[in-house]
Each structure stands twice: as structure tokens, then as C-alpha cells.
Amino acid sequence: MTTKATNRKSKPRAKARGTAPAKAPAKARLEARIDADLDQLITEAAEKQGVSKTAFVSDAARDAALKVIARAEVTLMAAEVFDQMMATLDTADDSPELEDLAAIPRRITK
């Protein structure tokens, strides 16, 4: 029996057993009802940036969401207010209740 060599490219082989090929991240769908004026505004802006309406809206929504989250996680205040707050942390308040609690003998000892 003779074998004939062919000049075709071999298919890429799967990774070693036990490893799954990488999957693309799942896509979610978002639908919104908007008026014609807003649709035209989004279309025009997307065209000016050279991106699709989907990309434009996705980027705008991501930017807005990140700003909201950042604002929720950070407290902004004037420098004078911050300095005043920090100064009050260095001065102990009168707290008779805490003094009473601290005077109670401990039930757990080492």
C-alpha cells in the first residue's frame, strides 16, 4: 500500500487534555425606547467618532456608570473641613459609657 502526501494545512490541535479552549466573554442585550430626536443625536455623535451606535452607547453608559460608582466610594470635602475632622480624631471625647464598659472584668483570659 502506498501513501500519498498532500499539501494541505493541518488543523490546529486542541490544547492538552483537561484544559478547555478560551471562550469569548458572554454578551448581554440592552434595549431602550428613546425618542427620534435622541436617536438622531446618538447617530450623529457615533458617526462623528467613527463608531457604531452600539459602541457609542456602550462607551457612554460605561463612563457614566464608572463616574457614579467612583462618586459613591469617595467622599469629597474642602481641605479646611478635612483638617478640622482630622484634628477632632486626636482629641478624645468624654464617654462615661465606654469607661464603665472598660471597667467590667473580662470573662475571657488567656
Summarize this structure as a short list of keywords or feature phrases.
110 residues; 0% strand; elongated; 4 helices; mainly alpha; single chain; disordered N terminus
Can you characterise this structure?
- Helix 1 (36-49) crosses helix 2.
- This protein has a domain at 31-86.
- It is built from four helices and no strands.
- The protein is mainly α.
How many strands in all? 0
Low-confidence stretches: 1-11
Number of helices: 4
Oligomer: single chain
The SSE order reads: HHHH
Layout of secondary structure:
Layout: H1 36-49, H2 53-73, H3 79-89, H4 96-103
Question: What's the quick description here?
Answer:
The protein is mainly α and 110 residues long.
